[in-house]
Amino acid sequence: MTERVIIFDTTLRDGEQSPGASMNTAEKLRLATQLEDLGVDVIEAGFPAASDGDFEAVSKIAAKLEKTQVAALARTSKEDIDRAWAAIQHAKKPRIHTFIATSDIHLKYKLKMNREQVIDTAVQAVRYAKSLTDNVEFSAEDGSRSDWEYLCTVFGAVIEAGATTINLPDTVGYAIPEEFAELVKYIKAHTPDIDKAILSIHCHNDLGLATANTISAINCGARQAEVTINGIGERAGNTSLEEVVMALHTRANYLPVTTNINTRKIYPVSRLVSMITGIMVQPNKAVVGANAFAHEAGIHQDGMLKNPMTYEIMEPETIGLNKNKLVLGKHSGRHAMRTHLKDLGYDLSDEELNIVFKKFKDLADKKKHVMDEDLEALVTEGILRTPDIFKLNYIHVTSGNTVLPMASVQLDARGDSVKGAAYGNGPIDAAFNTILELTGSTCELVRFTVSALTGGTDAQGEVTVRLKENGLVALGRGSDADIITASANAFINGLNRLEYLKNHPVKAAQGL
Ligand code: KIV
Ligand code: ZN
Fold first, then answer.
1. What is the DSSP string of 2-39?
2. Residue 101 Cα: closest atom of ligand 1
3. Phi, psi (deg, nearest 5) at residue 381
4. What is the DSSP letter of 340?
5. CB count in 10 Å sphere of residue 406
6. Which of 45, 187, 204, 382 could form a disulfide with 355 if both were Cys (CB 3.0 to 4.6 A apart)?
7. How far is CA 384 from CA 150, 388, 471, 472, in A?
8. Are strands 94-101 and 69-74 parallel, antiparallel or unpaired?
């Protein structure tokens, strides 16, 4: 029988460690629900000891999910493990995931502990976690740069203490596929009682090798892959779920293992993650990039017309991509919209549906064909956003090549209605200057991107901004048929997220 690889998704924990990618609780809940629907086996929902916000989000996810295991991360201290357990104890399938570094460089400079102390600490942590739940994962942070023999001793000791999953992280993305495969084989051959635990891998992408390392490890017997959607994560990111799953799916002849993932739900989840984090997927990204199924060269197009298999190793539909599918128009009703949203993975309550439907009608007045991408943007804007402290009521901009660009704006700001006007170098600069004056914000705009959500001259513009204030970084997103309104909405969304971060410090305690 074909063996199964457990897919452990850490978008909500390691993925959230991408600079500026913090998500609010509503967004995390929505994503967790969609990941469960995707067929992920384990969701690492967060690091409860890191902040009250993380604790709250993990608890809510734990209470909501029915089928998927919910893991909470903890360092090896009793306090961290207690906090992790408090957050997930009511989950249908809870898992405590505890970790400590095992490489000499981390022991010497970070932990200031010797090898025996690390083993004792790891064993005590796993034993304690095991007294709370049967499902305990142990990670040897910086495992790929650890002494191999020592690593196996640590793994053997934690298996004896009760760990049911042992995880080998390539924390700094240093491994090379053949070398990583050798290490996996070595661990399997030299770890006492290795058959009593699942061997997992967790790779980072600093050298662009995360997926290659993960696949190599699976090929040598690793049976859990830790991944994130779109490969988001610390620095260059983590192994991306879609790449691993589609490699296993497409090359089943060479890699005889299966996953529980419903591949047709990959693309909607990828879109959701980029919309709620504001981190766009690079166009040439494998599997989910905008160009992943685009054929430009004439010779390729010719081949594709004769038989798609000439140049396409996967069908777009297999990942749930129905290119620019026309979905709804001005006369479409609430029921049609609900059905389409369900197909896209959004099961909305009546109240949520009303909010999105109103936005849909406004958009359909301006845009003849409302596509899947437009609908997703409406859901993100209407439902998943942080509580609004600032809200755009109206914007008017004059610009052109013979006038000094000027914007007049009216906002709701902390419960008051305020209005004002300012000049700028261009219409967007003028809009942002006015919004800054009205909100009193001192933030700096560090990134601004604009793209079209769909094809066509009536496409909605999608704007992403990155704002920085006093060391806090927030992303803002906005979409509208008018790109200046989209920009103003993105800027205001970023300001709302900055306010949220000021009240919910997220990462200060992580120390990873
Ligand atoms: O990269 C890493 O080592 C981690 C561990 C906490 C698993 O994220
Ligand atoms: Zn990691």
1. -EEPEEEE-TTTTGGGSTT----HHHHHHHHHHHHHHT
2. 3
3. -70, -40
4. H
5. 18
6. 382
7. 46, 11, 24, 21
8. parallel
How much is the pLDDT for 384? 67
d(CA 394, CA 488): 10
Ligand 1 pocket by Cβ (under 6 Å): 14, 99, 139, 141, 167, 169, 171, 202, 204
Q: Which residue has the tokens 């539909």?
A: 317
Kind plus residue range of the DSSP H or E element containing 100: strand 94-101
- 138 pairs with which residues across the strands? 98, 166
451 neighbors 432 (Cβ within 8 angstroms) = no
DSSP string, 110-130: II---HHHHHHHHHHHHHHHH
Span 117-138, pLDDT tens digits: 999 999 999 999 999 999 999 9
Arithmetic mean of pLDDT, 416-437: 96
Write out pLDDT tens, residues 6-56.
Answer: 999 999 999 988 876 778 888 899 999 999 999 999 999 999 999 998 999
Within the chain, how many helices (H) and strands (E) appear? 16, 18
DSSP secondary structure letter of residue 54: H
Structure tokens at 232: 């988001």
Handedness of CA 208, 211, 213, 214 (dihedral sign): positive
Q: Are 454 and 324 in contact (CB under 8 A)?
A: yes
Q: Which atom of ligand 1 lies at the shortest distance from residue 142's CA? A: 3
Alpha-carbon distance of 153 to 120, in angstroms, equals 11
Q: How far is the CA of 294 from the centre of ligand 2 (A)?
A: 32
Would the pLDDT of 305 be above 80?
A: no
Distance CA 2, CA 4 (A): 7
Please check the confidence at residue 511 and state whether its pLDDT lies above 60: no
Among all bound ligands, the one having the nearest atom to the CA of 143 is: 1
For residue 99, the ligand 1 atom closest to its alpha carbon is 6
Straight-line distance from the first to the last Cα atom of the chain, in angstroms, rounded to the nearest whole number: 39
- 266-277 vs 241-250: helix crossing angle, rounded to 10: 170
How far, in Å, from the CA of 213 to the mean position of ligand 2? Answer: 14
What residues are paired with 203 via a beta bridge? Answer: 170
| pTM, to two decimals | 0.83
